[in-house]
Every structure is written in structure tokens, then in C-alpha cells.
Amino acid sequence: MRRFWFVLLNAFLPISLSAAPAVWEITQHQMTIRIIGSIHVGDASFYPLPKAITEPLTTADGLIIEADLSTTKPLRYPKTDITTDAILTQPQKKTLERLANTLGLPAAPLLESAPWLTAATIELTLAAKAGMTPEYGVDQHLVVLAQKDGVPLLPLETAQYQLDLLTGDAEDGKALLQAYLQPATKSEANFRCMIESWQAGNTRNLAQFANNPEMSKPLKERLLYLRNQDWARKIMRWTVERPGEYVMVVGALHLVGQDNLLELLKNRGFSVKRLTQADPISCHLLP
């Protein structure tokens, strides 16, 4: 379950533009960061990652990540006070049952679970059906490389904080679950399109996913916008406390769309430069 939480450098050699997952370089004063967006699950086709990320990592002063999941303390899971069955309408239950059937999941345990856990189960099952696992996630891959080279990890959040984000709303993740209640064919097509968009470095497509109208505004505020603002404040503080050269990996949707992290840092005086170019793709977010 930890893997679900879900959903860089002036001193290094210059990198020529090439089609690949999007990589940016941001600089202010004595801090330079190479940034790549992560897909938290993946497969072997994701690798190798762009050299614009992997080469600087070997000598970086640190790898900035969302949370260090490898050494976390035992997590405090909330009690299931509200079940999925209790918060869904009858039409929504029918949609969930059809989706569960297509994904090969029994519907009864999903209905008995907390809404956030039902959403997480659907997300992970969609990924598994597409042949993707957390072990191949981009953030996990870079953490392993950093630990191999003795590069310190700099978490922006704790794993407990991320869990609380998913479970801490008034209805135990109802809004999150509703964002996943789509016909299976649509869910699978959109999931595959998001992966293809990331691999091609197509940030325009990724921005459509970040701005997806099926996610409620309060949910986007909690999972994206407020966290972006918090991360920007921490990075600004680190420009004074931790000057140096860094690599950073965070969820790809934090780097595109409304109030994205790159935009917030640019507004705070960072220069922002993209180092890779996008490949054209034909898929798009299904409404």
C-alpha cells in the first residue's frame, strides 16, 4: 500500500535536447536541481531513464523525494468508520461492481472497505493489469540508485502524512473513490494514455490529467495544490540551509497544470529550463 501514495545542475555537463520523459533544471543562487516527474508504478520499458537525471545523481548532494518509504516507522491506519457501501449511491455501486468484475476483483470486500482503500485497490489493480508494479516506479528506481552511490535522501513529507492525506477527509476518501468510478474501458485507456504521455515527455497531455474535472476541487487542493505550495516553501528554505546540486523526483502531475511546483518556484525567483523535448502522441484523456 505504501507504494500507492500515490496516485539537478549547473556544474554538470550540458545535456542536448532529446525525446524522453520530461526533465527540467531549476537554479537560484547556490542551488541547482534537476527534476523529473515520477510515475509511481512502471515496467522495464521505462528504463534507462534520461542521462540528464541519472548522470548528475551519482555526484549530487542529495535526492529530493516525496517521502522515504524504505525506513518509515509503522504507519497508523485509521479505523474503518465509513464503508464504501455506505457512501455510494445505487448507480455508483453498480458502476463499482462492473469495474470490479472487469478487473477480476470481488465486489463485496470493496464495498466493505473504507472508500480510500477501495480507490487504492482499483488503482493498483489497473496498474497490475497493465503489467506495471511499484518496484519499477521511477521514484523507487532513483532511490535505489542514490542509496547505491551513497547519495542522501531528502524527503519532503513523511509516509504518515501521505497516508493521512488519503484518509483524512470527512468521508474517509469518498472524493478520491468517486474519481475512480469510471467504466473499465475508460479507466484502462486513460491509465495507458497517462503512461504514454509520461514516456513521451508530453506535458500538455499530462496537464489534462492533472486538471481532470472528475477530481473535485477540494481533492485537487489537498493532493496537489497545497502540497506544491508546501514543497516550494521548503525548497526556498533549503536554498539558504542546503545550497548545492540536487536531483529531485516527485509525482509527474505535480509538475504540470494549475499551480504546479515548477510555476511556483519560478514565481519565487528560480530560473526554469527544460532539458528534454516531447515526442508527439495520439492518445488523449477520455471525458
TrEMBL record:
Residues 1-19 form the signal peptide. The keyword Cell wall biogenesis/degradation does not apply. It comes from the Bacteria. CDD domains: Tiki. Pfam families: TraB_PrgY_gumN. Keywords: Signal. The keyword GTP-binding does not apply. This is TraB/GumN family protein. It comes from Vibrio agarilyticus.
